[in-house]
Amino acid sequence: MLSYIFKKRGEIIMADNQKMWTDLGMDLEQHDILCEVLPGAIGDVFLTQKNSPAAMDYFDMVLADVHGLRPGELVEFKKNGGKVFGTFCAYVPDEVIFAAGGIATGLCAGSQFWVPGGEKYLPANTCPLIKAMLGARFEKTCPFYRLADMYVGETTCDGKKKAYEILATDIPLHVMDLPQMKRERDHLKWAEEIKDLIKIVEEVTGNKVTEEALAENIKKINLKRQALQRLYNLRASKNVPISGTDVLLVSQIAYYDDPERFASMVNKLCDELEERVENGVDVAKGAKRILVSGTPMAIPNWKLHNIIETSGGVVVCEETCTGTRYFENQVDETGKNLDEMVQNIADRYLGINCACFTPNTARADDVIRLAKASKADGVIDISLMFCQTYDIEGRSLEQRCKEEGIPFLGIETDYTDNDAQQLKTRIGAFIEILG
Ligand code: SF4
Ligand code: SF4
Asked: pTM value?
């Protein structure tokens, strides 16, 4: 019953986290099976990459001990009375949770391993991300799902709303009522929802969210966003200094790492990438530049990036919640009191263009803008199977790309490898026709 640390590419070191997992009430037998799959997946996807930046070592290490390192820190935090809040979506404002002295952590749900467990509670024709959420909780095989004191959900898609009702039978869960339009009154309403979240986190942590603490944490989370923006800007270089697969891993880790440490590690990576850009280093010479848009790719879902980057393409941007939707736009830091700060937070988060909104033409604008900025040769739009909103929106996005002369490929897939060969053929053919 071991988890895995690999400090350098190619080197896997085992670490024993068994006591922590036992204390968290995990199903160790099932967890062993999950742990057996992970090093193989890491090896296939990451160790086969050539010329990965040295500063990726940190992110590789976090990944390799994903169920040990960060959970260990959170368990220590809890021993000293700290409270951990598990979140599922890019709309939940971390600033508020950190301002109350809590810690926000993403609950990933990106593995097929958890899907059958979720199907015990949900119809099979539910999005794999939602099924994995329930599987991870009820099968007791994820330390993050076990150690969180409270989950914070949101009324984004219908599947998630219903799934939260089921999760709430097993863990305290607060649902934020996300408006589905972006009128002025929706911005005001979202600010009220954030105020409610403040009350809840104050109750759970026993700490007040002061003006000072909120201002400080707005800055802290903005710095993390700025670091990610810097990373994405560097990918726009003619010579691509880092693979999309590596950047996807960084974006996935953004959801649960300590924000300050994460920002400093991303900036360190960017320093190295700046040198690479100057020296003309290209990790994918001759590869076609692809912008990936669509549904989030939670850890350890690297399926599409891996296929694209082993089929003659290189991903240069992700318009997803494990991409630009997570970090674009800062929270305005000029708020003078709690009300102004909360409204600024609300405005920034409502600037995210998720397909759950109507109308949502701004998302297509984002895709076109980002495709141009990242010099993408084509767009591959991904919809997780049974995700109605992204699937439907894919059609209008295709039309918009056509009007702009940007080649487009729409894909619907799940977490299994059943369609991997077919996708390889389709994606390979798409890449071949790109200029
Ligand atoms: S795609 Fe929409 S619902 Fe899903 S994480 Fe992103 S913002 Fe939330
Ligand atoms: S991918 Fe679609 S269906 Fe799945 S959780 Fe996100 S919005 Fe809901």
From this structure: 0.96
